[in-house]
Design brief:
The structure is a single chain. Helices cover 41% and strands 22% of the residues. The strands form two sheets. A five-stranded antiparallel sheet has the order 2-3-1-5-4. Strands 6-7-8 form a three-stranded antiparallel sheet. It is globular and about 55 Å long.
Length: 192
């Protein structure tokens, strides 16, 4: 009988966290987040509001029309009216509609409706959002080192220099790579 060491348990814990994050992100793949819509603008029916508002935002026409599994504001209502409005999370019934909306949002950036700027993003888990934020913080260093880069869904960044590419799933690995890159050229091995 083998006794588990604390290092084995730590590895198991990291593996289980990774699996949980993956499952949570997969369960959210048909959900979108809308930022910037003022509180109470949607009235009592968020789904009807989004169904009537989306053509003004994205100029996409859907056949069949948008259908939602559900939609709600994130978190508890904020008591003070001067704070930022809570994001709306909407889960669509058809994955292809979610994909089209997110593609339009990526190519267009922010949308304007009335006097409000609206941002539409994919709905990721907390762990994935933190990972993406950490990757975003490394973008200035990548530009400084004249590297091409891209952030893929949900939390993977590729980096290319002199025709050689590497994938990173962990921002700390990328940070260590950038620290070492200042002293040696990029080789053809890949980091996973």
């Amino acid at each position: 009988m083998q006794v588990a060491t604390s290092q084995d348990r730590d590895q198991d814990l990291l593996y289980l966290r990774s699996k949980r994050t993956n499952m949570e992100d997969r369960s959210r793949r048909d959900s979108i987040r809308l930022f910037g819509i003022p509180e109470n603008e949607e009235g009592t029916d968020i789904q009807a509001f989004l169904g009537s508002t989306h053509p003004k935002l994205t100029s996409l026409a859907f056949d069949p029309p948008l259908e939602f599994q559900g939609a709600h504001r994130e978190g508890p209502k904020r008591p003070d009216r001067t704070s930022r409005p809570r994001p709306i999370i909407a889960c669509l019934l058809h994955h292809n509609q979610t994909s089209q909306i997110l593609q339009a949002a990526r190519s267009h950036g922010r949308f304007r409706i009335d006097q409000y700027d609206i941002l539409i993003t994919a709905d990721y888990s907390k762990d994935t959002n933190e990972c993406r934020k950490a990757f975003q913080a490394l973008r200035p260093r990548l530009r400084q080192l004249e590297m091409k880069y891209g952030l893929f869904d949900p939390g993977r960044m590729w980096v290319t220099k002199n025709g050689v590419s590497k994938d990173f799933y962990n921002p700390e690995e990328l940070r260590l790579f950038l620290d070492s890159f200042q002293h040696q050229p990029m080789d053809s091995t890949t980091t996973t």
